Amino acid sequence: IQSNAVQLALDLIVSHPDLRGFFRMFIKRLVDDSEARACGVWLMDEATGACDLWMANIGGESLMADSADWPAVDLPGESLGRHLLACEEGRAAILEYDGRDERLPEPVRAFNRDAGVNALLVAPLRLEPKTLGWIALASVQDSDCERRWRHALIEATAHQATLALYYSRLVEQSLLEARRQAVLEERNRIARDIHDTLAQGFGAILMQLQS
To answer: How far is CA 142 from CA 7, 27, 136, 139, in A?
Structure first.
């Protein structure tokens, strides 16, 4: 499972270098390979500390905030995001729930009832010492063998998703820093030009006055 997860991540990084495209195909493959009902990705906002549902795949359909069907998953997604933030245990270990688990918020349990979800696995996207987000896998089948297999599968895929997310953020930060440095250098150049031009102008005026 680990080897397959690594190979899948490498293949998708090449074919879908943008983060949205990578995760869209990544969770679709996770749903297909695990025969799950749905998969969702929650990301932490470092600036605000909030945890929001960023992307989901339900029955093979990829959904994001600009999707027409997004309102149907936004409420349970928001509720689960708050639950994950408050659950200290889930920041470092995989959480296992029954579909109607009383620990889950009611909007999540209602979604599970409507979708026939009987098992929910939530894995942290963790790169010490930070938790970058979570990935959740909802399944209809709930035998002990299937649950252990999905546990191993989501553990392996969460590691690869974390590395892809972290690498993408590093690249984005590098590009932002490069743009900031370019703007700063241009401002300095303009300041030097203005200074030199004014100095020459004032020098000419003084010479004329002296004359």
So the answer is: 27, 20, 15, 7
Residue 194 CA: distances (Å) to CA of 105, 129, 144, 198: 61, 48, 74, 6
- The pLDDT profile of the chain, 211 residues, written as one tens digit per residue, is 778 877 777 777 777 778 888 889 989 988 888 888 999 999 998 788 889 999 999 988 899 988 888 888 888 999 999 999 999 898 989 999 998 999 999 999 999 999 899 999 999 999 888 899 999 999 988 788 888 888 888 888 888 888 888 887 777 777 677 777 777 777 877 777 766 676 677 777 788 888 7
What span, in angstroms and rounded, lies between the C-alpha atoms of 85 and 124? 11
Judged on CB neighbours under 10 Å (0-12, 13-18, 19+), 142 is middle
CA nearest to 99, candidates 70, 150, 138, 128:
138
CB-based contact 29:57 (threshold 8 Å): no
Rg (CA), the chain: 25
- CA distances to 41, 154, 174, 184, 205 from 138, rounded to whole Å, are 12, 11, 36, 48, 78
Beta bridge partners of 138: 38, 120
Residue at token pair 């920041």: 91
Element containing residue 130 per DSSP (H, E): strand 130-139
